Amino acid sequence: MGDMSPIRKSVSICNMEVWNDSCSVEELEYSIGHGATGATTNPVIVLNVLKKEMPLWEGRIKEIIAEMPEAGEVEVAWKLIEEMAVKGAEILKPVFDREKGLKGRISIQTNAQLYRNAGAMAEQAVKFSTLAPNMMVKMPTTAAGIKAFEEATYRGVNINATVCFTVPQAVAVAEAVERGLKRREAEGKDVSKMTPVCTIMVGRLDDWLKVVAGKQGIVTTPGVLDWAGVAAFKNAYKIYKEKGFRTRLLSAAYRNHLHWSQIIGDDIVQTIPCDWQKKFNGSDVPVEVTIDRPVDPAVLKELQDKFPDFNRAYGAYTMKPEEFDFYGATARTLRGFIDGYHELLGIIKDFMLPNPDKK
């Protein structure tokens, strides 16, 4: 494969996709140049893109405020979020057209504050799905989210389940999507262009177990905790294949090269931050199909022996949906997303009502 970059090679040796983990125009163009066929956003990503590319958006924010004279910062912020997603969708539209609608989508995330309200999430998902033909909608994998995935899928939305870290969450998502697809099929509605995905935020599972280890004084073999997310992803992938789910698994939240190099395989999506793509492209890490390679049994045993929260994350039905909201990684991530949303609102408020105490 000659001069092919490692990222491009990873999608060339198997039926895998790489997406850019941002709606940044500059980053998305880099990613597409290395074989990316999609993109994702969330409140924190939108906030970071806005900070990084403020000159591109400052004028438009002021225009939106002028165009919506009765709107508060919430309405202005969501108008901006939608426009940023649509801009990314436009960049990906040639990929979407070339791949006949099976690739080239961008994900926009519903309001994280709705995580307990299945109906509100499903309604926002349906609305967002109409913003562009290649739009996909992210919702959190909470108890209410599982219900929303089924309903939104039934109503024709391509869903991306996010705030998901564990095998039981991933299995519940796939089962909900199957119910939604079957309801559509029973009514003769088309499902041929529906490409649902379920994210496992592999690095955030590692993060959570490291927090647990710190709080409880658990000593681990160096490097063991970097395999937790990979192990959960590999087990979920095996279950998905055994059950024939039509949802694909997506990996996110990169912390090291294992989160890329150890989960390369068919029917997988990897949504990689641009900075990590550049690191991987500059590395000498071997690019091979690895998804079916088992995690070292000694590593798996140590995780299982020392961390009940790893065991909850690893089995197919080791948690019920009503437990999802209170799993440590879920609560931490939802709080972070909601905090990022509030910070974004603060930036918009400063445009609308500048602080007179500041220069």
Structure commentary:
- The chain is of the alpha/beta class.
- It has one domain (6-352): Aldolase class I (TIM Barrel, Alpha-Beta Barrel), CATH 3.20.20.70.
- The protein has helices at residues 6-12, 25-33, 43-52, 54-67, 73-98, 118-129, 143-154, 167-186, 202-216, 228-243, 258-261, 274-281, 297-306, 308-314, 321-324, 328-352, and strands at 17-20, 38-40, 105-109, 135-140, 159-162, 197-201, 248-252, 268-272.
- An eight-stranded parallel beta sheet has the order 1-8-7-6-5-4-3-2.
- Helix 5 packs across helix 16 and helix 9 (202-216) packs across helix 10 (228-243).
- It starts with 5 loop residues before the first helix and ends in a 7-residue tail after the last helix.
Provide the CATH topology.
Answer: TIM Barrel
Task: Determine the number of helices (DSSP H or I, runs of at least 4 residues).
Answer: 16
Q: At the first level of CATH, what is the class?
A: Alpha Beta
Q: What characterizes the major β-sheet?
A: 8 strands, parallel
Helical coverage, percent range: 55-70%
- SS strand fraction: 5-15%
Shape: globular
Strand order of the largest sheet: 1-8-7-6-5-4-3-2
Order of helices and strands, N to C? HEHEHHHEHEHEHEHHEHEHHHHH
Q: Which regions contain 5 or more consecutive residues with pLDDT less than 50? A: none
What is the CATH-assigned architecture?
Alpha-Beta Barrel
Q: How many domains, in number, for the residues?
A: 1
The CATH fourth-level homologous superfamily: Aldolase class I
Number of DSSP strands?
A: 8
Average pLDDT level? 96
